[in-house]
Write a structure and sequence with these properties.
65 residues, single chain, 4 helices, mainly alpha
Length: 65
């Protein structure tokens, strides 16, 4: 599994979890992968929808707290 595939998988898992601690951990892991991967590689793969989903989910979680 490449770093980009791992990133997409972790984002997907984070978006599916209902536990805030698990979500925060997974997002931290995704951020570490992002810092290790070249920006061009991530731009090449279209993660815009994943990022939008993450932000939408985070906004919903914030409203619930």
């Amino acid at each position: 599994m490449t770093n980009i595939e791992a990133f997409a998988h972790i984002i997907d898992l984070a978006n599916r979890t209902t536990d805030k601690t698990t979500y925060d951990y997974l997002m931290k892991e995704a951020q570490e992968i992002m810092s290790d991967t070249k920006t061009e590689d991530i731009s090449y793969c279209d993660f815009a929808e994943l990022v939008k989903e993450r932000l939408d989910n985070k906004l919903q979680r914030t409203k619930l707290e």
